[in-house]
Predict the 3D structure of the following.
Amino acid sequence: MNLNFYKTKLEEEKKLLKEELGSLGKVDETGDWEAVPESEMNTQEVQDEADMAERNADYEERSIKLNSLETRLGDINKALVKIDGEGYGICEKCNKKIEEDRLEANPAALTCKDCMEKIF
Ligand SMILES: [Zn+2]
């Protein structure tokens, strides 16, 4: 297995994810991401209740997007740790090797095809 190939793919995706996360919110010192409404990204003052409602709706929407990106980033970080250590490409459920074509489609995959089908 060509670990460097997967590592490069993971690092590229990580970079893109961080850029996307950075456009939706900010990260605190513990590495947790929090959504920031677009109006506040542009440092505008919140003025009245209509603005507040819009702000909240905007915040919700951005939070949902941000959370899914953050989960993906977590998977990628986990895979990168395994590449540098050991256990990359090994299914977390059954300890068998993860199929190469599955890893090519998703280098951050933590389970083999069989186990993935059991989950969904
Ligand atoms: Zn498995």
About this structure: The helical segments are 3-24, 38-41, 49-84, 100-105, 113-119. The longest strand covers residues 25-27.
